[in-house]
Structure formats: C-alpha cells, structure tokens
Amino acid sequence: MDIESIIDSISKLPEASRTKIIENTVPVTYPKGHILIHADTLETSVYFIKKGIVRAYVNHEGNDITFWFGTAGETIISMKSYVENKRGIESIELLEDCELYRLQTTKLQQLYLQDIHIANWGRKFAEQNLKTTEERLISSQFRTAKQRYRELLKNTPHLIQRVQLGHIASYLGITQVSLSRIRAEIK
Amino acid sequence: MDIESIIDSISKLPEASRTKIIENTVPVTYPKGHILIHADTLETSVYFIKKGIVRAYVNHEGNDITFWFGTAGETIISMKSYVENKRGIESIELLEDCELYRLQTTKLQQLYLQDIHIANWGRKFAEQNLKTTEERLISSQFRTAKQRYRELLKNTPHLIQRVQLGHIASYLGITQVSLSRIRAEIK
DNA sequence: TATTATTTTTTACAAATGATAAAAACGACA
DNA sequence: TGTCGTTTTTATCATTTGTAAAAAATAATA
Question: Cβ of B141 and A65 within 8 Å?
Fold first, then answer.
C-alpha cells in the first residue's frame, strides 16, 4: 500500500497537507524477525506499513504478550513515546520482511501545530484507534476465549494464516495449550 | 471541578480558544439513576463531569457489562457517535446525582475545523484516552482477576467506596460471586 | 534428503472462574 | 423501629483455563 493511500485512509487530506507529511517520510525495509521498536526506550519515529506484518508485545515475567498486529496500511507507534514523549512499554517485531515508511515524531508534532488539516488528521487517527481499542476491551470483558477466537477467524482470517499460533494465543489472553484445545474442539 | 480546569486538564488552551468551547457549554444536573445516554441511539452531545460519578455499560444477553467509570473532570462521550456519527453501543448511567456541562458535538466539530488549537486539544483528548484504554487492554490480557482487583484498589480506591460491587465485578470481567470470593480471600 | 530446531498438539492434573441457589447484610423508607 | 427490596456473601458443583511434560507435526538448514 503506497504512502498516499495510507495517509488518506486515515482521513482524506488536501494535496498540500498530504505532501507535507510525505516529504518527511523515508522508505525503509527490514527482514523478518527484526525488532523495530524496543521496550523501555524513547521511540522517535512512527512507521506506516507498506507491506508485511508486525506485532506489538510486552514482556511479562519472561513471556511475550502480543496485544496488536499491524498489516499493510496500518501505522506503528510506540504509544507512550507518541503521546507523552516517554519511554514506551512495548516492543515491535516484524513477523515478515517489511517495507515501511518512517516519519520522525518531532516533525509530525511540528506539522500538527502548523497545519489544521494535519492536526485534524492526527485527531482522526487517535479517535479511530481509540474506538477500535475500546471495542476490543469491551469484547474481551464478556466473551470467552472460544468466542474471541471465532471472532478473530471471522474478522481477520488472513492473520491466522500468517502468524504463528503462540502469538495469536497471547493476543487472545490465553495460553497456547488452551488455544490448541479450542481449535481441536471447533473443527 | 469547573469547566476551565476540565478543559485545560486535557491540554492547556489559549484563553480565546478555551472561551470558544465554554461559550457553547450548558450546565445541566440529573439525579442518581438517570440514564444520560441510551445505547443504539445517535448521541448529539458530549458531557464534562463537574461533580458525581457515572458508568458506561453495554448490555449482553440481559446483563450489564460496565466498561468505564467517569468521575469529576472526565469527559463522557458515546464513542461511535463521537467518532463516526453513528448510533452508539453503550449506555451511560449516573451513579450519583451529577452536575455536568453539555456541549453539542456538531458545534465541537465546527470548532475543530476552525481553530487549530482546539483541533490539537481534541487530538490530545483522543490520544490520552487511547493510551489509557490500551494499557487497560494489555493489563487484562495477562493479569488475573485478583491482580486486576488489587490494581483497582490501589489506583482508584475511592471508586470501590462509591460504586456497588456488581458494577466493579463486570468492569473487571468477572461475576459478582467471583469478586466476592476474591475479596474474602484478600482480607 | 537427512538432521535439527521450532511450533503445535495432546495428556494429566491443578487452579480459577462460572452458574445456581440460598443466606446474610445493608439501605431506603413508611 | 420494622419491613421490604436490593446488594453482597457463602456454598456446591460444573466448566474453563493454566501448568508441566511429552509426542507429533512442521519448518529451517546443512
């Protein structure tokens, strides 16, 4: 997915404003397995995914807990770095070879203060993610692991094909053993 | 909490911009038990809480699932109405007599397009909520109910005093019986 | 292809949580 | 204060999920 489409998919921008963002992006590629963002560091860039798939995870008592998958067209941020300019708690790992666009956060923040269209575009970005995240939170509050897995199969079937099940399990908040049981039962 | 402080607590605004928002707010009061926002309707206002406490909940198979508590200084929105101008999935119930400030969403949207400071203020509002919500999601993914209850006790002790335990239980994603067990065990 | 490493499934048992019903505690109010 | 309705706790049993270890399947590499 090219950078113009990614930016406009968040919210349609006037040509001039969109160009201001694009001028500041740099295409980068990294191989599968690369750790793009490290937990406990201040991340100074955001990334748009042109191609590939990534996961965000936190480490908890030696285990990785995956809480987000990003695919083509989506935006990678280190939440605390982006929102509060503090060290983030999550790491980002590339699950496939990826093509990304890098954009420096400081530059983006400048544009937010200079261009009202970009400010509203940034607002839309946060709002859309907020809605999605809240829906996931609510869903996790009353659906069983089996229901959540079914939901995932239905909404993002491509994910299960491309991502190993251990990551899916932790994304669902259950163990791999438990997911395996659910899969056996459903078939 | 007065309206000036509430607005500035999200992000400090220039006097003129803040005034533009405040001019469009109307103080309203409702009694405990009032349903401020109804699920499955398009909500045309947002509310700032001057005084009182509210809960946001969705209905699932006859049971209320509380997913958010709002107290003085916080902002009440119907997420889908606010972000997508569609009917919301949640209801808002006042758990105490409340004093609120009402602001029409259409007016706020106009201000977003007219005033870059307000646009960035709205961005900050969404970003802060996004960060908080994501943290809650991550926490729920690997903490047990007992740990989440302890966390709640520690972070918002006043909540447990003022809100009935059935609401707390559903907020934690467990049954009231299960919460009661946890409480008995902890003491 | 053969070998090795990684991922997924299976098994057995333990712990946590859910469902249901009843008892106890609490609060509102006549 | 006494009564009634609501909330919280307790008890019992069923179900789900976790833990640990091993087997099976799959993927990576020489």
Answer: yes
Ramachandran bin of B162, using left for φ above 0, alpha for ψ from -120 to 50, beta for the remaining angles: alpha
Q: Convert the pLDDT of each residue in B53-93 to its tens digit.
A: 999 999 988 889 999 999 999 999 999 999 999 999 999 99
CA→C1' distance for B66 and C26 (Å):
23
Mutation target to probe the B interface, by most B beta carbons within 10 A, among A105, A141, A148 is A141
pLDDT score at B67: 96
Instruction: Give the Cα separation of A125 and B120 in Å (integer).
Output: 12
For A56, the enclosing helix (H) or strand (E) is: strand A53-60
Q: Which of B178, B161, B158 is nearest to B169 (CA)?
A: B178
- Give the model confidence (pLDDT) of A20-78 as tens digits: 999 999 999 999 999 999 999 999 999 999 999 999 999 988 889 999 999 999 999 99
Contacts of B119 in chain A (CB under 8 A): 116, 119-120, 123
Unique residue bearing structure tokens 């996961």: A55
Q: Any idea which nucleotide's C1' is nearest the CA of A181?
A: C9
**pLDDT value at residue A185:** 87
Q: Which helix (H) or strand (E) holds B120?
A: helix B116-142
Spacing of B20 CA from D6 C1' in Å = 45
Identify the three-state secondary structure at position B166. helix
Residue B29 sits at the vertex; the CA angle it makes with B34 and B162, to the nearest 5 degrees, is 60
Element (H, E) at A114: helix A105-114
Three-class DSSP category at B31: coil
* Residue pair B23/B30 in contact by the 8 Å Cβ criterion: no
Write down the number of H helices and E strands in chain B: 9, 8
For A49, list phi and psi in degrees, rounded to 5: -90, 115
pLDDT, one tens digit per residue, over B117-143 is 999 999 999 999 999 999 999 999 999
